[in-house]
Amino acid sequence: MSASKMDGHRSRGRYTHAEAILGPELCDRLANTKVLLVGAGGIGCELLKNIILTGFGHITLLDLDTIDLSNLNRQFLFKKKDVKQSKAMVAAHTAGAFNPNVHIQPVHANIKESQFDIEWFQTFDIVLNALDNLDARRHVNKMCIAAGIPLVESGTAGYLGQVQPLVKDRTECFDCIPKPAPKSFPVCTIRSTPSQPIHCIVWAKSYLLPQLFGENEDGGSELDEAEKQGENAQEIAALRKEVLAYNVVRNSLRSAETTDDAAKTVFHKVFNTDILNLLSMADMWRSREKPTVLDFDTIMDGSFVVKEPSKSGAAPANSKQKPNGHLNRDANAPISASQKGEGGLKDQRELSLQENLSLFVSSTNRLASRLRAGEEFISFDKDDDDTLDFVTAASNLRSAAYYIERKTRWEVKEMAGNIIPAIATTNAIISGLIVLQALHLLRKSYSSLKNVHIQFKPSVPLSTVNLCPPNPKCGICRDTYTKVQCDPARVTLGELVCGILGNGEGEDGGTGKRDVSVYEDKRVLSDPDWDDNVERTLESLNVTRGKFLTIVDEEGEWETIAVALCELPPNHPADGPALLLPSSLPLPPFNPRPPTPMPPAPSRKRSAPGDEVSEVEPSAKRAKTNGTSLPELGSPSKKRRLEEDGLVMLDGGADKIEDDDVIEID
Ligand SMILES: Nc1ncnc2c1ncn2[C@@H]1O[C@H](COP(=O)(O)OP(=O)(O)OP(=O)(O)O)[C@@H](O)[C@H]1O
Ligand SMILES: [Zn+2]
Predict the structure, then answer these.
(1) Is 397 in the same domain as 430?
(2) The domain spanning residue 111 has which CATH number?
(3) Which of 59, 14, 27, 26 is nearest to 40 (CA)?
(4) Are residues 266 and 400 in the same domain?
(5) Same domain, yes or no, for 507 and 401?
(6) Structure-derived torsion over alpha carbons of residues 423, 425, 426, 428, reported in degrees to the nearest 10
(7) Active site located where (predicted)?
(8) Residues 29 and 97 in one domain
């Protein structure tokens, strides 16, 4: 048998099952389908294997990262020898062997780079996200909306997971519903009245560690400002004292003569002086258990006994919590085998108070010596042993002072790193579901598309939710997208905006002259009263390939236009025009304002009640959903409830909450 015949035979054999399930038409089409898979981590590796075996013919696999040892337990395309290599390259190499008919293009890069502009996105038939952060997910969502390419979004968190197909104008986009804010705690709970281990962990990670080893934020000048503005003088004096005290401690950690004494100074300030200060505020402890002042020397020599929480008097604020049994004993007493979690890993052993203090001293010294060796500041990183040891020890010492259960280093890592353990099985289930949704999309079988969730219900482990139509108020998918090809060094902002708006054609041309503001992301580049940038080149305004200009109608009548910037074609003559506009200019939905009511004049005939409303409202709504309302879609509120329950698309780094009175765990 000739080699080519043998290949054909092999190929048919390979796809017999796929063909039986998908039908010959889709099965053949898959061979020519171009897929972009973003992310080669937990979901990405599983998904790559699935789409290769299903027979997707052309796969571009993109990931910015290199392989870490900790990936190996679930990212099965990687082996120990691959650690520190590019994820995209290794995954493509390993999985490529599963099906030689598939062409895989690995790309080691950040999906946000400008080279991945909408023209690049438009070279794909479908995009599959296997990402782990909100920022990249939102970026891909916007690029897919702009490029008009369907996207399957996914996420897992422990045993939970979700798959969400997204199609411009038909379904919600990723940004149609705001994502839940990260967990937060009131500052006073963290600073003065912790009642749970997480409060002490957040304090050690987000307050103490930055105070000692972080960037020196000049609290002094902030206080000067507050004083000028007439804030409470007594409070400011107290805060000033606090800043000075921390400066002394910071300096001692940075001084060349640092010894164990520096750690002792920190300990004394934080677990002794500060707690004594808090105790002096009698009001604070009327309805709460008073904390205990810790003592360095007696903890070190093992004679310190943690005071039992008082059982009499006013009910402590945390009385609803289960009693912290093991704290009602000498904290340095030997810990039983079961308490220690013996048999488990070293990290999973509970440390005695004395051991926590030793860890506090050693980690403080390690961090201090890093500062002295030239590191300017150190911030928390769950994979940085020194910062994790410090947060473990400091949070446990604080827990002891407040009679709160202490946590092992393993638990602290999980809580401080906001880590939900990744589960290979969940990733595998989700990756299978992604393929099913991708196949519906390729078949254009829109009524079969579903949001699918894995839930904690053994009887119904998967729940499906009908898709919601786009949110008419969404600032991403309701814009009208277009693209221009240009040389940003030769085109001015004014030329581009006038070109896109077709200025000079008059109102009835649909894109006539209007008052607009122009933005790049959140930057205002011009508005009707400010035209300083209009004559400047796009390049000088840092508006280049891969970015979007957003043109907003000041009257609010025309919907927003988003213009994606692309390069001139490769064969474009050097003396050719610097700006190539799209062949048809964007025509965003137009919602004319109701005419301004005229002052009542006896001669004017009154219009029938509701006239204006019936003319304006429905057309505006039609325009915003582009006439594609889907009768079978579920309600947005149902989906929101699911999101609140189910921790979907987990991450949180990107979104910031604005309330100053809370501390986020990111
Ligand atoms: N902007 C981006 N561009 C390209 N790839 C990205 C981008 N952001 C995240 N990724 C990739 O998405 C993948 C997500 O996979 P996963 O959630 O399993 O994370 P991980 O980093 O492998 O594991 P863990 O965070 O649990 O250690 C990672 O490989 C990551 O490098
Ligand atoms: Zn949207």
Answers:
(1) no
(2) 3.40.50.720
(3) 59
(4) yes
(5) no
(6) 130
(7) 188
(8) yes
For residue 40, which atom of ligand 1 is closest to its CA? 29
The amino acid occupying position 67 is: I
ipTM of the complex: 0.97
Instruction: Give the per-residue pLDDT at 209.
Output: 94
Domains: count for the chain = 3
Return the amino acid letter for 260. D
- d(CA 150, CA 135) in angstroms, rounded, equals 19
Main-chain dihedrals φ then ψ at residue 8, nearest 5 degrees: -60, -45
Distance 153 CA to ligand 2 centre (A): 13
DSSP letters, 72-116, are TTT-TT--GGGTTSBHHHHHHHHHHTT-TT-EEEEEES-TTSTTS
| Contact residues for 205 (Cβ-Cβ < 8 A; gap 6+) | 380, 391, 395, 416, 665
Domain boundary pick from 546, 580, 614: 580
Does 93 fall in a domain?
yes
> Does some domain include residue 610?
no
Residues pairing with 552 in the sheet: 517
Taking the C-alpha atoms of residue 44 and residue 36, their distance in angstroms, rounded to an integer, is 11
**Mean pLDDT of the residues in the chain:** 81
The DSSP annotation for 322-373 comes to PP-GGGSS-TTSPPPHHHHTTTS-GGGSPPPHHHHHHHHHHHHHHHHHHHHT
Binding residues: 39-44, 63, 71-74, 87, 132-137, 173, 176, 474, 477
Last residue of a domain, one of 417, 436, 454: 417
Give which of 156, 148, 113, 111 is closest to 132, Cα–Cα. Answer: 156
Which residue in 264, 404, 262 sits closest to 324, CA to CA?
404
Answer whether residue 658 is part of any domain. no
Tokens encoding 290? 């008073």
Q: Which domain holds residue 63?
A: 18-158+423-444
Cβ proximity of 84 and 71 under 8 Å: no
Q: Give the CATH number of the domain where residue 503 resides.
A: 3.10.290.20
**CA distance linking residue 161 with residue 47, whole number of Å:** 14
Mark whether 387 and 282 lie in a shared domain: yes
Q: Which residues of the chain have pLDDT under 70?
A: 1-12, 182, 217-223, 226-232, 234-235, 256-260, 307-345, 504-513, 595-666
**CA dihedral (104, 109, 111, 117) positive or negative:** negative
Give, for ligand 1, the residue of 60, 63, 154 to mutate: max count of ligand atoms closer than 8 Å to Cβ: 63
**What's 271's domain CATH number?**
1.10.10.520
DSSP 596: P
What's the pLDDT at 344? 57
Quick one: pLDDT at residue 624?
A: 28
The model's pLDDT over 284-306, given as tens digits with 9 standing for 90+, comes to 888 888 899 999 999 999 899 87
Which residues does the annotation place in the binding site for Zn(2+)?
A: 173, 176, 474, 477
Q: What are phi and psi of 389, to 5 degrees?
A: -60, -45
Q: What is the pTM of this model?
A: 0.70
Ligand 1 centre distance from Cα of residue 416 (Å): 19
Which residues are CB-contacts of 341 (< 8 A; sequence separation ≥ 6)?
A: 348, 349, 350, 408
Cα–Cα distance measured from residue 116 to residue 64, given in angstroms and rounded to the nearest whole number:
13
Q: Cα–chain-centroid distance for residue 610?
A: 45
Pair 129, 84 in one domain = yes
- Go through 95-112 and write b for each residue having 16 or more CB atoms within 10 A of its CB, e for each that does not: bbeebeebebebbbeebe
- Whether residues 128 and 52 fall in one domain: yes
Write out pLDDT tens, residues 617-637.
Answer: 222 222 222 323 333 333 333
Q: Are residues 66 and 106 in the same domain?
A: yes
Cα 477 to ligand 2 centroid, rounded to whole Å? 4
Tokens for 314?
Answer: 């006013």
